[in-house]
Fold this sequence. Notes:
This protein has 409 residues and is of the alpha/beta class. 30% of the residues lie in helices and 18% in strands. The protein folds into 2 domains: 1-64 and 270-387, no CATH class; 67-238, no CATH class. α7 (214-229) crosses α8. The longest helix has 21 residues, at 40-60. It starts with a helix and ends with a helix. Bound molecules: alpha-D-glucopyranuronic acid.
Amino acid sequence: MVRFAVILALTTFAQAQNLTYNHPVPDPLTLADGQPVKDAATWTTKRRPELMALFEDKVYGKTPSGHTDIRVMPPLVDLKALKGKAVRKQVTIYFSDRNDGPLMQVLLYLPPGNTKVPVFVGLNFNGNQTVNADPGILMNEVWSTDELDPKKRLHLQADERTRGTNAAAWQVEKILAHGYGLASIYYYDIEPDFVGGLPMSARMLFPEPEKWSALGVWAWGLSRALDHLLTDSRIDPKRIGLIGHSRLGKAALWAAAQDTRFSLVISNESGKGGASLLKRGFGETIDHLNGAFPHWFNPAYKEFTGHPEKLPVDGNELLALIAPRPLYVASAAEDLGSDPKGEFLSAVNAGRVYGLLGRKGLGITQMPMVDQPVMHDIGYHVRSGKHDVTEFDWDQYLTFADMHWREKR
Length: 409
Ligand code: GCU
């Protein structure tokens, strides 16, 4: 882990641009039997299912079919939240018939009015109360992260002082002013993110939970949130976009690959194990992913520690599974662990599948300048600065959503 950090610290963004591939990148348009995919029907009926099965078997585990005894509680509604600029709805969703079992709280903001609106949905890192300083947000129970022994970790009511601490990454007021809604869920509700978190996970409600993964169940939770959002008459079911940052970007991409009801997808610096190319041999390694976060991926993924060349899939194919839906991939220049160029090349490569399906991928093959977004059916930018979600990022996502959602009204 130390070696990984030192190598990255010694490598500049400019050097990372010149790196050539370490290992060949797998081709989304070649079938397992070696035949090329030449038409949309072959992609849809043969190649896409092949790739889905590979990601299930080798990376995230197979999502169990069937839902648990999900119970949705009556929502807590405030029609005049944020000084009248928002309708706030909060709903607790129990994943089983047990009140002490796993549950998630969905925080939803909508612009006031009666019209149907598009909505972004995404998991948050530190509790719903961090998404905005709004005093009406119910406090999540959060897990303390200062205790290394998982058995000693505490599940506590969040601290009042954490209200709004991640507001810059969520831009609630800006999204609402744009006419869009936002739903957010604390990802630890679905599975706490530490080794030893499995007993508290929604995975426990299914047989063989250890064969699945934390990323898999976070993706599952996003689909359960979507089930609920689709029951809200204010939300346009055809315009529900999914956003995720970093590990939650990995979860968002896998959720959208499996659940095509998500009609637009944003990967904000999802990095390796997400949008980026592991085979490029720059940035975070599969060894680091498996060593530091063994619970994120399924047991089969561990077989590729030290052998990324043997992994039959890569980020370009995960992105290809989103096609033909609008997809935005964003990097940050100083986020070398995610390997911005690896994310860019992955998006370029996935664009070939968009082309086959009659869409326009990125439309460029040279990495754009920092802070210069490119948008077609795939969008991309590399923002100056660090690993984060910023107002600049949201400005691009809203423009991209306008491009795709406004034309469908
Ligand atoms: C770590 C991890 C990344 C991940 C990131 C995050 O840095 O190595 O793979 O994307 O955490 O989720 O912030």
